[in-house]
Amino acid sequence: MLKVAVVGATGYTGEELVRILASHPKVKVVSLTAKIDAPEKIQDLYPSLLGKIDMTCELPNAEKAARLADFIFLALPHRVSMEIAPVFLKRKKKVIDLSADYRLKKDVYAKWYGAAHKDAAGLKLAVYGLPEINRNKIKTARLIANPGCYPTSIVLGAAPLFKNDAADNGFVIADSKSGVTGAGRRADIALGFGEVNESLKAYKINEHQHSPEINQELSKLAKKDVAVVFVPHLVPISRGILSTIYVRLKKPLGTARVVEMYKKFYENEPFVRVLEEGKLPQLKDVRGTNLCVMGIKVDAKKGLCIIVSTIDNLTKGAAGQAVQNMNIMCGFKETEGLI
Amino acid sequence: MLKVAVVGATGYTGEELVRILASHPKVKVVSLTAKIDAPEKIQDLYPSLLGKIDMTCELPNAEKAARLADFIFLALPHRVSMEIAPVFLKRKKKVIDLSADYRLKKDVYAKWYGAAHKDAAGLKLAVYGLPEINRNKIKTARLIANPGCYPTSIVLGAAPLFKNDAADNGFVIADSKSGVTGAGRRADIALGFGEVNESLKAYKINEHQHSPEINQELSKLAKKDVAVVFVPHLVPISRGILSTIYVRLKKPLGTARVVEMYKKFYENEPFVRVLEEGKLPQLKDVRGTNLCVMGIKVDAKKGLCIIVSTIDNLTKGAAGQAVQNMNIMCGFKETEGLI
Amino acid sequence: MLKVAVVGATGYTGEELVRILASHPKVKVVSLTAKIDAPEKIQDLYPSLLGKIDMTCELPNAEKAARLADFIFLALPHRVSMEIAPVFLKRKKKVIDLSADYRLKKDVYAKWYGAAHKDAAGLKLAVYGLPEINRNKIKTARLIANPGCYPTSIVLGAAPLFKNDAADNGFVIADSKSGVTGAGRRADIALGFGEVNESLKAYKINEHQHSPEINQELSKLAKKDVAVVFVPHLVPISRGILSTIYVRLKKPLGTARVVEMYKKFYENEPFVRVLEEGKLPQLKDVRGTNLCVMGIKVDAKKGLCIIVSTIDNLTKGAAGQAVQNMNIMCGFKETEGLI
Amino acid sequence: MLKVAVVGATGYTGEELVRILASHPKVKVVSLTAKIDAPEKIQDLYPSLLGKIDMTCELPNAEKAARLADFIFLALPHRVSMEIAPVFLKRKKKVIDLSADYRLKKDVYAKWYGAAHKDAAGLKLAVYGLPEINRNKIKTARLIANPGCYPTSIVLGAAPLFKNDAADNGFVIADSKSGVTGAGRRADIALGFGEVNESLKAYKINEHQHSPEINQELSKLAKKDVAVVFVPHLVPISRGILSTIYVRLKKPLGTARVVEMYKKFYENEPFVRVLEEGKLPQLKDVRGTNLCVMGIKVDAKKGLCIIVSTIDNLTKGAAGQAVQNMNIMCGFKETEGLI
């Protein structure tokens, strides 16, 4: 049994991670920590874990977690992860960081996250943990930068077109709609039920901190610069993202051809499903799962391909994908504990 | 035109008050203040007010508000109102306080709100502003203690039985379900969309600060001590309360007889509607209105009368009722600006 | 007082229309009809109307409505309106049709609504009732085709760019998010709470029946063919639409310049508000109002203008706009009964 | 591996059952049927099942299901189950019926479900499948009447008091709040998002078809007649029930004593959790789980015990409990596939 620690076990992502790990047949959770007032049984904090786990969530203590565990999940706010990851890395532990701290190049990080990066060594080790794209690198990685939720939905949704050189890299729009847990569990009037319910809004157009991550990953696939117009929206749901992606095609392709391209691209992927021509996904198809489901429609006159891609932000967009990465890193079956 | 000021214009109640007053044909809003970072047009803060009002919300300045206005609404947190009301009262202004500060007797207040009362003089002047019960006293009042949202739904729902000596005062249960705006606009994880949505909970059983207010008002009606078992619940809606009230009857009465009693009790009330036997209200019947709609069912075998009473917590439960009180105090038509 | 009839008073739009008309100072509602089982007081069907109106909703009888009323609102399903409108038109009554029956040219209608048009004469009379664009024609119209909800949000959002020849007509995407009442009050599993809540979906991409209406109106403004890529989405809210519109600019313009253009275009409009640079609207800004609020952001590198435009689908998107049209047709103040 | 069939696989309960069974380590699903237009892969109907199961949902064919499977789940509307169960019973298959058809005595059934019972033999065999109460009988049962969702929350919530003769059987009120999936997946305006969202209502007071089931089971526990005042409410959530139960105590007992009684009563139960004094459950504690979590508060002056009991209506209230029963009947670990 792999001994794992979750650092930051009480946020929305941490809670989901504990839920998945507690039922994972190859894993033993040996340490849970979080910034809480006093140690408390995790199943008292989250009674839905009752019967799945019986364990005290302790106050943060990286040294102790490093002694107990061989595999570490960091479910911490950005800027905090890069302070703590080195403690585990220098002890040769494997680490999956769910924050943004290891996803971007040093200078891009500094620009978008408002702080100089503090762990250049870690940054060099880090592999971007999108298994459908980077599976081979993930296998041998010691440090995974687990992707953001928006980027997961968008990069998976656009990857086949860019990888197959079928997309006009000058023209990509991602109009994404996200539930509220994507913003984390924190006291904020703007996240209050009275503000979010029966409302909708776009925010941070082209200024969202996930923008550089989306651009970086699509650029790697396209082997040239891609700059997505990224417009995130907040919708009154608890969990889930649905991204509607508009990509101009380099040459004429009908819906059937693009669906075929996507089906081929993802044919061996256990967590990606491409719907038949004429079908579109809905968020409830993926709620609570590690799936990404997508539907495709080409506007032939305009030469525009529209991909609707949906994930659960807490599973495929965070905790589920982290466990998928762990499975790959440890040689477990990739779907273990996730289906 | 009556010159009115709203002190605390940016909470959920304050916003609703401004919306109603802005369209009120007998009123001119002359002062809006709130604890905000800097003065700002109220229609910029709440664009839905566009076209209804064009006015700057200023920083708190009671002296100035008192110079400008003749009628003052205090939409402030409890404990704050009693510090500020005297400024207006000593200048002979009429005041409606929407907090709990003037609703209870001194000692009861201290016990439930954790602070000694600081305005004994005001407390003596204050009239409990439930028009269906206290209309005559309200007409000549200088200071109104505007009722709480839960008490409004429960006292109106139970009043006819108690007033007509038909209720067993030893046995009343109020199982109330409230939307989230009842808790005010504030940063609190427990009020976050991710916590409230797809959840339900009971809280503060018999310990809610509205308990003494409910008991006090029903006791006055019954002319003997009434102690309600009060169980509030939080439900994932933005606005509204539905209270299911269980009252044991002193003597056998069928549903038809109780409906008749209620219809008679409220026959001239513009804002109370008693449904016919066999019908039950739903919250959407009252959303955005100043109505209280109720349905009645008697369990004859048990001698138990069940009243379902529903209001919008921001209108009849707060701002609408305050304007109804103002209308009465100023000799306007009682429904002015409210229908 | 203008004598008005509402034909189809019990759908979501009809209910909202009755609510607005009941409080309108220049109007007397003289006839309400709907396909219901038996005549019933409208305030019993919708208790929230209590105090605003006291009137029986009768079974459909166009002849009788024509005798009683001088101004007729048809809140009927498409294909039904064109059967009934002639009854009123031949008696020289003024008619506002809230269905799609008089919005499109004959052949386009037949193609998108699956039925030959049956009232060629009416079609000739009809004026598309978007006041911000067609106010002068509306003044003298006898029959108004009241715009659809999606088209209102999109045409208003894109009009200044097209009217000012600043838009590349080959490239417009409208990614719209709508609440559920847009689909009408009807029994349909897909509209059930259990299906819609905690879900999101895109549907009818480029196949929505509002597509030709959007294209037709923008083409008129642009004086050349415009074909919008229209992607509607269903979101779990009751009322409201937020459309995110992507328009390629013909020549470089910054956000400030476009905001200025929009402010000028709408400077005298009582129901349109253009937010300052840096601000974006949210649906709650317009809920329950007849407003359209929009925010603008230009991606200068891409030469792409992003407009976020939001309305309440039942007011500015249907009943409110109908009353605005009535006000214009009858020489009332345009905001009468709406603010 | 146990070969199981699900008859009625496409309702909310059927879907949940398939989800649980697909991941159950001791089970092989061999037949899925439903009244659908044409056979279709279940993972196409419910993409969230992708990877968990790959199977066609066929049209109803009881004979065929009986040939293929040894264990049958009937997730059918009431009145339909009793027509089909005999097909399986006479072939000595084990059956769990999730409808109401085998829960009540013949005459009580006829009264509440408006139809004479058609399977007297089956009724004689049937065991009421509430494991916490009837575990021993379930072990050897051939036909289980799986409990209703409301009754599960209420009977579990009140059982310890009645079993320990601590409750006044003349006085029990159950004020229950339920999500929408409890009403099944069907086209009904009253279940539409536009009707349910931002609303609340009580319905069928003392007339809900679950009333006799609640009374029957509590009466068995109390060994005397219990008649609960049952007031169900509809709240805008997808799944879950929270019941607030008011029971008069026969003799004075404090909260601590009752909590102790409950903890003892449920001490070995894997799916019931009694919270410590001072704590109350929320629905999110149980969403997606097979748990029943409860909190207790005694009003000592009134001699009234208030129990708040919450379950997920689709798991512990239906499909999860059915699998729990299957586990017991087949000698599997009781929590297998459920935690």
Overview of this protein structure:
Four copies of one chain form a homotetramer. Chain A has 339 residues and is of the alpha/beta class. Helices cover 32% and strands 23% of the residues of chain A. Chain A contains twelve helices and 15 strands. Chain A has helices at 12-22, 42-45, 62-68, 81-89, 106-113, 120-125, 131-139, 149-163, 193-196, 211-222, 255-265, 319-330; strands at residues 2-7, 27-33, 40-41, 56-58, 71-74, 94-97, 127-128, 143-145, 167-178, 201-202, 229-234, 241-249, 272-274, 292-299, 304-311. In chain A, the strands form two sheets. Chain A has an eight-stranded mixed sheet with strand order 3-4-2-1-5-6-8-7, sandwiched between helices. A seven-stranded mixed sheet of chain A has the order 10-11-9-12-15-14-13. In chain A, helix 4 links the parallel strand 5 and strand 6 (94-97). In chain A, helix 7 packs parallel to helix 12 (319-330) and helix 8 runs parallel beside helix 10. The longest helix of chain A is centred in the middle third of the chain and has 15 residues, at 149-163. The model of chain A has no long low-confidence stretch (mean pLDDT 97). Chains in contact: A-B, A-C, A-D, B-C, B-D, C-D. At the B-C interface, loops of B face loops of C.
